[in-house]
C-alpha cells in the first residue's frame, strides 16, 4: 500500500486549501480507505514521481469535550493510521493553546511529524514563523496554501519523511 500522510490542525488554518494545493486540482478523487469517514477524506496524491495517500482531517469541530480535546483526539487517530503527520498552524496567529496541545500529542509520535506555517502570503511574515520552533516539532515550513508559496520545499520534506 502507498504511504499515508495525515494533515491535522485547528479549523480554518488552511488544511483543505493546502491539500488542494498539494493535489494541484480542485476536484480530487476520494479514495475508498477503511476508517475514512465524512470527517477524514483521503485523496490519491503524487509528488516527485511517487504516489501517496493524503488524508484531510477537515470537519473537526469542537465537540462536547471542547476544541482542544477534539483536535488532540484527531491527532492521536492520525498518528495511529498515517505513516507521517503534517500539523498546519496559522502563522498570522502564531501558536495557540490548542496548537500547543496538539503538538504535545504529536511529539510522542514515533512517526515523522512535519510543521507547516500557513498563510505566509508575503515575506514580512517570515520572521514570525521562527517563533513556531517553540512547538518542539522541528523546522516550521512557511507556506501560503492560497498562493502556492514554498509548498515545494514542504513537499520535498514530506517525501523525505514518507
Ligand atoms: P481548514 O479548516 O483548516 O481546512 O481551512 P480552509 O482550507 O478551509 O481555509 C480556511 C480559510 O483560510 C479560507 O478562507 C482560506 O481561503 C484561508 N486560507 C487558507 N490558506 C491560506 C493562505 O495561505 N493565506 C491566506 N491569507 N488565507 C488562507
Ligand atoms: Mg478543511
From TrEMBL:
Keyword check for GTP-binding: yes
Location of the EngA-type G domain: 3-162
Domain of life: Bacteria
Residues engaged in binding GTP 1: 9-16, 56-60, 118-121
Alphabetical UniProt keywords: GTP-binding, Nucleotide-binding, Repeat, Ribosome biogenesis
UniProt family annotation: Belongs to the TRAFAC class TrmE-Era-EngA-EngB-Septin-like GTPase superfamily. EngA (Der) GTPase family.
Subunit structure: Associates with the 50S ribosomal subunit.
Protein purpose: GTPase that plays an essential role in the late steps of ribosome biogenesis.
Name the UniProt record assigns to this protein: GTPase Der
Organism: Amycolatopsis albidoflavus
Underlying gene: der
Full-sequence portion shown in this chain: 46 to 207 of 493
